Amino acid sequence: MKAGQQETRAMNGDEAVAYAVKQSDVDVVAAYPITPQTIIVERFSEYVADGKVKTEFVCTESEHSALSACVAASATGARTFTASASAGLALMHEILYVTSGCRAPVVMAIANRALSAPINIHCDHSDSMAERDSSWVQIYVENSQEAYDSIIQAFRIAEHPDLLLPVMVCLDAFFLSHTLENVKVLPDEAVREFVGNRQLPLITNHNGEKVPFKLDPDNPITMGPLDLFDYYFEHKRQQEEAMQKAAQIITETHNAYSQLTGRRYGNGLVDSYRLEDAEIATVCVGSTAGTTKTVVDQLRAKGVKAGLLRLRNFRPLPVRDIKEALENISAIAVMDRSNSFGGYGGPIFHELRHVLYDTSSHPYVVDYIYGLGGRDMPQNIIKGIYKDLMEIVETKSVKEYVQFAGVR
Amino acid sequence: MSQFREIRWHGRGGQGAWTASELLAKAAILEGRHVQSFPEFGPERMGAPLASFTRISDESIRLHCSIYNPDVAVVLDPTLLKTVKVTKGLAEDGILVVNTQESPQELRKKLDITSQKVWTVPATDIAIKILNVPITNTAMLGAATRAASLVSLESIEKVVRKRFTKEELAERNVAVIREAYKEVRAT
What we know:
The complex is a heterodimer. By secondary structure, chain A is of the alpha/beta class. Chain A has 2 domains: 7-200 and 239-261, Rossmann fold (3-Layer(aba) Sandwich), CATH 3.40.50.970; 270-405, 3-Layer(aba) Sandwich (Rossmann fold), CATH 3.40.50. In chain A, 39% of the residues lie in helices and 20% in strands. In chain A, strand 4, helix 4 and strand 5 form a beta-alpha-beta unit. Chain A is globular and about 70 Å long. By secondary structure, chain B is α/β, with parallel strands linked by helices. Chain B has one domain (4-186): 3-Layer(aba) Sandwich (Pyruvate-ferredoxin Oxidoreductase, domain 3), CATH 3.40.920.10. A 7-stranded mixed β-sheet of chain B has the order 2-3-1-4-5-6-7, with helices on both faces. At the A-B interface, strand 1, strand 8 and helix 9 of A face helix 1 and strand 2 of B. Strand 8 (180-185) of chain A pairs antiparallel with strand 2 of chain B.
């Protein structure tokens, strides 16, 4: 498979996700539509109605039911997908933990949208950041192409026998979900071959026999039973151990996919941009990274040693990669598109400062909460953040560690 | 030198400004260019003023923010001129393309435009004559294509034929685009 065999299409982020799901040989999709994820479900239901997929498509009455149906389907060995956003994801909260606890490798697209109230349909990361502790792998994408590529990778990552954890692919509402861009798509066979069939590990059943890990009347096993202080703790520890293996699985999957397509997103975990000799840097997730790369180029042209670290994965947190990328930077600004009210900055800031605490260089790390409820993040605000960083380096002091950017 | 252009479309909810921006983007993709097309991320109500946007570039587009200084502004509905500042942020050497019966000279004077290029076309008349409805998005797509040399007329016609699956409607829209392309006038 060569890049030349890929076809360039005009797709928005949601359409790119739906197309990737169509090609990934998915057995069950259960979903409930919510703006700005709606296009994903609409397009996919068209594929079902037109007979272009063999998928069992379940229209549920709520997101709680949608994810519950996905867990059940996944438990039978089915490849399973759903999509949600904002209030829909919040309603799934309980079942997110059931999904990961049952080791059900469900893949879900999140069109990142603000949480009510006041009601708002636009982009911020409050919805998925609130679920960071639910034992789901979280991938944040920069553009529609990466949304397509990441969904395909997500099935292989989630279903890897050493991981068996669900994966969220997060794309920014409207900035990606509703923005038409060039998207290169692979032929159906190439995707099918890449994702392969779901591999089920063998487990020991009640009779001591080795059986595939799935609900099957011919080989009955129990899933999700009462699990008190006798074993619950061990099961949670196993989940953490699986998460610790996720980084390698994500990197391997990203490398294999790159071989196929010629496209790379950093090392699959983090995407470093002009950081090699950088003095100042920003850190963010999602589509703002693209705008920031343009700003970095402009600053570099003026001799400013600026760089960017985009976290592609927030869970698992790529601790080693963050340290390696940032330990020699003098001043770092995290850009958080969500807030932890009453906390000390946003969720990315918490983790970044925490990871960098162990470095001997002790860089300055500050936080900017931006873009809540879809507020635009134009180039001049990002330039202002880099200007603040230059001042921190010059004066060796920080005026404010946590600020809002672009707010009145 | 690589080209990067930003286009802002002004219309009212239901007039097809987003469709125009998408058709332009799809035509540019046919020519091997990189594009973005997105609506104004605000509330959309039938008849209310709104904008949509297109970016066209020879290289991949990384910006994911709104457009503040467009190179081209296209106005689908002449009544917007009274309520919306359609030249807001328009580049000094930018291009304004307006659906109006007025001449470019008259419009330039009325809007007090000095540096930018002004093009006008009676798109509503063309749309009523050929489509029997005052829907001007395809007419203004034709006019903007010529005024700003964005893509070839051939590419526009290809995507319009693909978009309108009913052949008769597609051909009428192609006729609208050709007429607007021919009739649009500059100062």
